[in-house]
Design brief:
Helix content is 29%, strand content 26%. It is of the alpha/beta class and 269 residues long. It has a six-stranded mixed β-sheet, with helices on both faces. The chain has a four-stranded antiparallel β-sheet with strand order 2-1-4-5, covered by helices on one side. It has a two-stranded antiparallel sheet with strand order 11-12. A hairpin with a 2-residue loop joins strand 11 and strand 12.
């Protein structure tokens, strides 16, 4: 039987600066899968994304995206196939940049867009803004966009490139419960679209792992606790270990929640 080629793969990834940030992380993502990375604050979630995007140099191990291996390929080119939506990126956008200009900047993986756009670029940006339900925001400055609107525009920026992967680094941070649910539904529609990229959501809220996500990676103190199909990974025992406290996992209607201070059985009910 022919082996399935992964979208990306991490083998024995270790990142060390003044202290060890990641300890020999192993992770493999295949086509058709959408992943959530779950862990407490300081567990290494953002550092793992930064390593995959080429912004944080591994100390040891292997990072491979498609046929490109970190250290052996021009990661600037590889990065054009990897989208990152992060609040750290939003802080670097000039306040007078319009939503259209922010989306246009994604074409060449820039942060801000200053030159005159070509006609083909303008047409593509308009299509992308429609795809992320933000066409009405086209000429609105970044300063005057809400958090929800900014997240959609940043996703549009990422979609301007030929994406294989779209990393979402705690995209629901700062959203109220109603707006969060609206955004998560939007991600579900995005995942169903033609040529949709593989989605990887970083979160520390199990409630955000909606049905579109098929697999989960659990991180704790820079180590992999579990990785695999969602139903097998999201258990009370494993999440208690992930967060360092007894929790009970509950599952209803394809969604999960946890109750802190309770621990009944090994698996979500």
């Amino acid at each position: 039987m022919k082996a399935v080629k992964p979208i990306f793969e991490v083998k024995k990834l270790r990142v060390e600066r003044e202290a060890v940030i990641l300890h020999e992380v192993n992770w493999r993502v295949e086509r058709g899968q959408h992943w959530a990375i779950l862990g407490a604050n300081g567990s290494g979630k953002t550092s793992l994304l930064s390593s995959l995007a080429g912004y944080l140099m591994p100390s040891e191990g292997e990072v491979r995206i498609g046929s490109a291996s970190f250290g052996a390929a021009d990661w600037r080119e590889v990065r054009r196939t990897v989208g990152l939506v992060s609040s750290s990126l939003g802080h670097r956008i000039e306040p007078d940049q319009t939503a259209r200009e922010v989306v246009l900047s994604g074409r060449e993986a820039q942060i801000n867009f200053w030159r005159r756009a070509r006609a083909a670029e303008e047409r593509q940006a308009a299509r992308v803004l429609r795809r992320v339900c933000a066409a009405h925001l086209s000429e609105r400055p970044w300063l005057h966009l809400s958090q929800r609107e900014r997240q959609r525009v940043l996703i549009g920026r990422a979609l301007m490139a030929r994406l294989r992967l779209l990393f979402l680094d705690e995209p629901c941070a700062g959203l109220d419960p109603v707006t969060r649910e609206d955004f998560l539904k939007f991600l579900g529609m995005l995942a169903l679209g033609r040529h949709a990229p593989t989605l990887v959501l970083v979160t520390h809220h199990v409630e955000e792992i909606v049905p579109l996500f098929t697999h989960v990676l659990l991180l704790s103190r820079g180590r992999t606790l579990a990785a695999g199909p969602k139903a097998k990974v999201l258990t009370s025992l494993r999440l208690s270990a992930t967060f360092g406290a007894p929790v009970a996992v509950r599952r209803s209607g394809g969604r999960y929640r946890i109750e802190v201070g309770r621990h009944r059985g090994s698996f979500a009910r």
